[in-house]
Write a structure and sequence with these properties.
This protein has 4 helices and 21 strands. With 509 residues, it is mainly beta. The strands form 2 sheets. It has an 18-stranded antiparallel beta barrel. A 3-stranded antiparallel beta sheet has the order 4-9-10, with no helix packed on it. Strand 2 and strand 3 form a beta hairpin. The protein is globular.
Length: 509
């Protein structure tokens, strides 16, 4: 049995396990309306603590689905991410009450597809590994398979609720023409947490998080003419030229930890606040050079979310403020002359830094009709996102500062035995400051081209829009079927536009 078959079998077992528990007495259409109501998870960050998931839902709900996704742009917005993605998917998730004092939840998915026209990047998870990626000037489509499993458990014991949660993601990406990367990724996250009841309607909680990450990159060439040069990028158009060329095999190993604190109302009405901190670090190691530790990246991230949610009768509203701060510092190791193909490390240089902060103000207002046949929500938002990257020597800088505004509208409607859910969303991004400073430019620096193209694309204004419809219909007891269709459209600078379509269908119970 190969890897795909084994993991598919595990998915089936997980699904069967999650669907075996008893359900509540709420009608299926009512349960669907409640579960997908945007007000239910408006205070999203508090649920990083698995113990607070005990209060996440008052209903049980499970879903199985199959789907297809297609995204295509006329030109890539970011060259290293390509200009399209087409995939098939299987998803399963569930949230269940085991007893009066314990709850369990789980999620699994399997994606298989193809990423189109990836260039200047032969590594996976670029949002994690950037800027220390392996790259070439040719690229091409990448076939991929991704598996994800997650599960959590929370139990109430007198004044304390404790919880545990874990998720695991496995990714494989490859290409069958030169250059032929074969990337495998494993990413494991585990969280434990507790919440303490107070005499008021509020609870306070604390959680601890740990992470283990590894990615292996193997690149081969089968052409009789040989392979092209593989670069080891180090940020803002720079690369470690000394080890570029035939040293094509490398891997990343990383680990992290974090914690979060939260105060929230058990009834989901009132003030909520969550603050969290996460640290993550990884090394990029070249396998071909006796496990040479080329780079190290240290990441610090802080998040805070605070707001207020209120419900009276058939109306509910909420407002929240989010703030995120991300800092990355990259270290390049320095090596002496090789002896027996072993390079002694003689020092290190702190060359790359990235600073990002994001602030967003969001609100929600919704109303349920007296007959409970209709419910609508409107969710406006404003945001600011500033990113600045620097390279120390030679001095280089890239800055992007954006303002964004958007609004989302949702409507659920009962018709006979069915429930329909409509979604419409639009957003506008305005770049009020962008800068690219380059010094000591050399023609041989091939990584400069994607940097300049990406900055030009990202420094312009953009517009995004999406719409979707979902139809659910009960078929037997608490079971039902559904089908959903989503379409998105994005406009960017330099006449870049892309379209996305997603179709899903499946069972609810």
């Amino acid at each position: 049995m190969n890897m795909s078959s084994r993991l598919s079998f595990i998915l089936i077992l997980l699904t069967c396990y999650l669907t075996g528990w008893a359900k509540d007495s709420i009608p299926p259409t009512e349960r669907i309306r409640i579960y997908f109501s945007p007000g239910e998870d408006f205070a999203s960050q508090i649920y990083r603590n698995p113990a607070t998931n005990y209060y996440f839902r008052d209903i049980t709900f499970s879903e199985l689905s199959l789907g297809w996704k297609h995204e295509k742009a006329n030109k890539p917005l970011i060259l290293q991410k390509g200009n399209g993605d087409e995939s098939f998917m299987f998803n399963a998730f569930s949230y269940l009450s085991l007893k009066k004092n314990s709850k369990v939840w789980g999620k699994a998915h399997f994606y298989t597809g193809k990423k189109k026209d990836i260039t200047y990047n032969e590594s996976s998870d670029i949002d994690i590994t950037y800027p220390y990626i392996s790259a070439d000037t040719l690229g091409g489509n990448l076939t991929y398979e991704e598996y994800f499993f997650a599960g959590g458990y929370a139990q109430e014991i007198r004044k304390i609720v404790w919880g545990i949660y874990a998720n695991y993601r496995a990714l494989m990406e490859y290409r069958r023409v030169d250059p032929r990367p074969k990337n495998t990724t494993s990413d494991l996250n585990v969280s434990v947490g507790i919440t303490l009841k107070t005499k008021s309607r509020y609870s306070g909680g604390i959680a601890l998080h740990v992470r283990k990450y590894k990615q292996t990159n193997l690149i081969k060439f089968f052409s009789e003419l040989g392979g092209i040069k593989i670069f080891h990028a180090s940020g803002l158009g720079m690369d470690y030229n000394r080890f570029s060329g035939n040293n094509t095999n490398s891997y990343y190993k990383g680990w992290g930890y974090g914690s979060s604190l939260s105060l929230f109302p058990k009834t989901k009405q009132g003030i909520f606040i969550t603050a969290s901190y996460d640290y993550f670090t990884f090394e990029k190691i070249i396998s071909d050079l006796n496990e040479l530790p080329l780079n190290q990246l240290n990441e610090n991230k802080g998040d805070i979310e605070m707001g207020y949610r209120f419900k009276r009768g058939n109306r509910e509203w909420g407002v929240k403020l989010q703030g995120k701060l991300l800092s990355k510092k990259g270290i390049e190791n320095l090596f002496g002359d090789a002896a027996s193909n072993i390079y002694p490390q003689i020092g290190e240089a702190k060359q790359f830094t990235l600073q990002n902060y994001h602030v967003a103000l969001e609100a929600t207002y919704g109303k349920l009709s007296q007959s409970k046949r209709y419910q609508w929500f409107i969710l406006p938002r404003l945001g600011m996102n500033n990113t600045e990257m620097k390279y120390a020597d030679p001095h280089r800088l890239m800055r992007l500062c954006l303002l964004s505004g958007g609004v989302e509208f949702r409507l659920s409607a009962l018709y006979k035995k069915s429930i329909f859910q409509f979604h419409l969303e639009g957003e506008y991004n305005y770049t009020y400051n962008s800068d690219l400073q380059l010094t000591e430019i050399e023609e041989k620096q091939k990584m400069l081209y994607p940097l300049q193209i990406n900055h030009s694309n990202l420094s312009g204004n953009g517009k995004n829009g999406s719409t979707s419809i979902r139809w659910d219909h009960p078929i037997a007891g608490d079971k039902g079927i559904f089908i959903s269709l989503q379409y998105s459209k994005h406009f960017h600078a330099n006449s870049i536009h892309n379209d996305g379509v997603q179709i899903k269908g499946g069972l609810t119970f």
